[in-house]
Each structure stands twice: as C-alpha cells, then as structure tokens.
Amino acid sequence: KIEFKGAESKDPLSYRYYDASKVVLGKPMKEWLRFSICFWHTMVGGGGQDPFGAKTLQRPWEDGLEENPMKLAKKRIDVFFCLLQTLGVEYYAFHDFDVAPEGATIEESQKNLKEITEYLLEKQTSTGIKLLWATQNLFSHPRYMNGGMTNPEVDIFCYAATQIKDVMDMNAKLGGLNHVFWGGREGYQSLLNTNIKQECSHMAQMYKMAIQYGKSKGYTAQFLLEPKPREPTKHQYDYDAQTTMAFLAEYGLLGDFKLNIEPNHTTLAGHELEHDIVVSSAYGMLGSIDSNTGDTMLGWDTDQFPMDVMKTTAIMSVVLEQEGGLAPGGLNFDCKVRRESVDPLDLVLGHIGAMDTYAHGLLCAAKMKQDGEMARMVSLRYDSWNSTDIGTKIEAGEATLEDCEAHAKGLVGGEQPKLTSGKQELYEMVRNRYL
Q: What is the pLDDT of residue 121?
C-alpha cells in the first residue's frame, strides 16, 4: 500500500502531501477529497489506441482472456480493486458496459450485468470500497450514432431507456451514491437535419421518467448531469454549466439534479479550467467533480492527470466553501495514462501524482481560507453595494430605474463615477504566496 512519507520524500511510490487522516479545517483530508477512480480509462479505454495507431499499453492480466469476455471482465475487476487498495482510494465509478460485456440482445446484456453486479458486490463487501457513481454508455454502440435520449428513432430512445433502468437497478444494489448522465452524442453534427427543440424535450422526458422510476423504487442516488461542449458531436446540448442549468430550469428539473463537472470539458468550452466548478457551486449545483485536466494546445478531450497545484488550489478553494464539501460526490479521476506510458506501473504513478496534487491544493486552499486575505480583498471590491443606501436597495429588489438615475445625478459635483483598479496583478501575487 502506498504510504505518506512527507513533502521531502523522493520516493515516487509514496505520498508527499496526501495524508488521509490529517485533519484540515475540522475534517480528515480524505473526507474533503473523497477520491475515486474510474473503471473505463483505467481498465478498458482502448489500450492506448488512437486514430493514428494501434494499442500500446501493456496489460498482462488480459493475456489469453480475449475470447472469454466474462472472465476478462472479472479479471479486470480483480486488478482494479487491487489498484484501489494499493492507493488507499475508497470510491470508484463505472459505465455499465465497461464492467460487463454487452450482449447481442437486451436479455443477454441484463444477464451479464446481474452477474457482474454480484461480483462487484462481493468485492465491495470484502474491501469496504464504495461506489461513488454509475452511468450508462449511450455513445459507443453503433445504435447510438445519432444519440440515445435525443435519437430521431423512438426504438433507439426506448433501448436507451432500458439501459438507464438497468443501471439504476445495478447502482441501487451496489449502494451507489450518485448516478451520472453524460450525453456524449446528445447533440448534433448538422443543423440541417436536426430539430433541436424536439430532441431537448425528448431528453428532458427521459430524465423525468428516470426520476419517476427512482421514486417508485426508493432510489436514493443523486442524479448528476455532466456538461461538455462537443466531442464526439459538433455541439452537445449540455454545453457548459450555465447552459445545463438553464436546460434544467426550462424543464422543471433543477430540484432533481446537480452537476458533475469535468475541468477538461470546461476548457473545451473556452473557459478557465475551474470556471464551471465556480459557477455551479455559486448556484448550489456542484455535485461532484471528474478531476482531470486537458492540454490546451490540443482541441480534444485528453483526460490527463491533474498535476498543477495552482489549479487544484483554485478548485479546492471552491470545495471548502461548500457546506459538507463535495459529499455525496467526490473527486473522481477520469484520467488515462498517455499512449507512450505503456507500463502497468504508470497507472499507479499517475494516480499518486494526481492525489498528491489535490492534497497539496487542499492545504494551500485551507491556508488561504484561514488567513482570509483574498476573501477580504474581494469583499472590499464590492463594498459600495453594502455601504450605500442605493446599493442595499438594489440588492433587496426595491430600487427603480428612477432611483438609480437620481443617485447618478447626485454624485458629487455631477462628476463621472471614479475608476477603481481591479488589481488583478495584486490578487495573483497574493495567491502565489500560498502555492
């Protein structure tokens, strides 16, 4: 098992900052971070294959099992839980047909899912590891080339609904804390052949049916939507946090969902890496984080391990302000090793580095919060809203345009409002003191 050895350690198979039981602002570090590892990139994920080349990753536990999908699935689960225990990670996440082989029919797929559910339950019981969330893969199979929930064919919509139902049953049996919907193909490639309103309405109806089914079964998992602007579609309907919240509001679903934010998706939308986390948290909608990063020099979702302390500090600063932190969500490493990182050990090293980077970010964010200097600076910047009658009146919703006009005309000497520096450079300097 990987051990904490302190910041001076040069042993790559050790934690320098992640000390699971260390109390930070009244809570053990592991409870603030709630680390989880995804099954798909870690155990399946194409083996390093890309559009320009074949598989490269060495996975000796798969040798000789290619012709027996169920044995291969169980072997991958064995190795996966060994990895979780080695790293001291208490949560995991999966797509349905990552962990179980998809059958030729619905009935065969359901049989496989039930068998794998029992196998996962045995693993959870023997290790104490818990399921952070489950989700359904409505994007890989050719039937979903035009989407699952937004497909123009009702037969495929119903197939997707069946898959969602099966994952809900699976998640419930495994005690999953959340249920994620990621609409990778819920969007369009061309507006010429697309009825956007109808497709979005169908997607909303699918969510309403899931809510209804959940209530009938006593389903307790928190529903989460995961925004992404594009890839594999040209445009995805859940473009970013604000777009997704607007969709939920339009269809009366705000009270039933929160968001699962993936920072790499956020940068693909043209925002700062932490933007969607800040926005969703500000509106009480941040439910969980797929903690990865991307390469801004590339135009696709690279799903890299987060290694930038400045960015993890920014993210953990948001988490520390949430009552209860991220629970029942967590920091799920939706990350994959690079195609050139072919050794199985690279899986371990990638997660150690990412966990340490988030732990370091947590410590920096906690010190920043304790000192309160940044918070005081931001508060002072908006002080006019609290120190003037017109400011408090506007914020209370009691002001009129005429009130604002009277205030503007009443400025001393009829002068223009003064310019106040935003002092971005000072904020950046203060931030850097904590890194």
A: 98
